């Protein structure tokens, strides 16, 4: 088994990444290493923040392969908001529910009716680092729609408000396996896996 430290405190990301990477990988995260703290996400792009988190994790774990995921939701009618601020849209320590509530409020201001669907996408950037050196960056996107109408109990974050292109169900109504085959994170991990296959790590 190869060891990989995922520089995240978000257990939903760890769960999805562990499933997507599959059995050859033993994935650890910040919750299994409570002594590690990461630098502030001061970047203005997903890539900058993914690299900041991955390099921060790597500084604490010499020799270990470290990956970070920076991701978020971009709504065209809101000029790409919440974007890199998706996790802290309603404030620094906002919960997913508070962030969704703010997004609903913002959509209500621009929407003509409560059942309107707005073009949006989830974006994910993964950065892979070892000993402070950036090895690879992989990205993934899933296009779809956001709505003030929340449906489903699965997933996390904005999943219950996001309807992937071509589907009548929200991400929170799909099974984890269905979400993984479509999602921004699923696509980014596929790209990262293919790079790792071509560049086996010692
Ligand atoms: P770490 O920085 O510790 O990894 P985080 O949740 O703060 O955890 P980000 O800064 O990358 O991570 O913010 C990602 C936010 O974007 C996340 O909290 C959700 O609000 C949203 N998001 C990203 N991927 C999502 C997904 O698959 N489903 C729903 N919401 C998602």
Which short descriptors sum up this protein?
202 residues; Maf protein; alpha/beta; globular; 6 strands
Structural write-up:
The chain is an alpha/beta fold and 202 residues long. The protein has one domain: Maf protein (Alpha-Beta Complex). Helices cover 31% and strands 26% of the residues. The chain has 5 helices and 6 strands. It has a 6-stranded mixed sheet with strand order 2-1-3-4-5-6. The longest helix has 15 residues. The radius of gyration is 17 Å and the shape is globular. The model has no long low-confidence stretch (mean pLDDT 96). The structure holds inosine 5'-triphosphate. Inosine 5'-triphosphate binds next to β3 and α3.
Question: In brief, what are we looking at here?
Answer:
By secondary structure, the chain is an alpha/beta fold. The chain has helices at 11-21, 46-60, 96-110, 176-182, 184-198; strands at 2-6, 25-29, 65-75, 117-130, 133-147, 162-164. Inosine 5'-triphosphate is lined by residues 8-10, 13, 41, 69-73, 86-87, 96, 99, 122, 155-159, 171, 183, 185.
């Amino acid at each position: 088994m190869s060891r990989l430290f995922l520089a995240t405190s978000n257990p939903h990301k760890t769960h999805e990444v562990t499933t997507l990477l599959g059995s050859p990988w033993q994935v650890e995260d910040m919750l299994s290493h409570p002594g590690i703290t990461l630098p502030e996400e001061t970047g203005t792009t997903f890539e900058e923040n993914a690299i900041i988190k991955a390099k921060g994790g790597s500084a604490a774990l010499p020799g270990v392969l470290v990956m970070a995921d920076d991701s978020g939701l971009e709504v065209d009618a809101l000029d790409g908001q919440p974007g890199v601020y998706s996790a802290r849209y309603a404030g620094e320590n906002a919960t997913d529910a508070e962030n969704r509530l703010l997004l609903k409020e913002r959509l209500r201001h621009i929407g003509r009716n409560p059942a309107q669907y707005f073009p949006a996408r989830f974006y994910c950037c993964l950065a892979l680092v070892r000993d402070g050196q950036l090895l690879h960056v992989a990205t993934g996107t899933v296009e779809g729609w956001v709505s003030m109408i929340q449906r489903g109990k699965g997933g996390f974050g904005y999943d219950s408000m996001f309807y992937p292109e071509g589907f009548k169900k929200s991400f929170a109504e799909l099974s984890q396996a269905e979400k993984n085959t479509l999602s921004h994170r699923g696509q980014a991990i596929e790209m990262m896996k293919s790079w790792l296959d071509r560049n086996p790590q010692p």
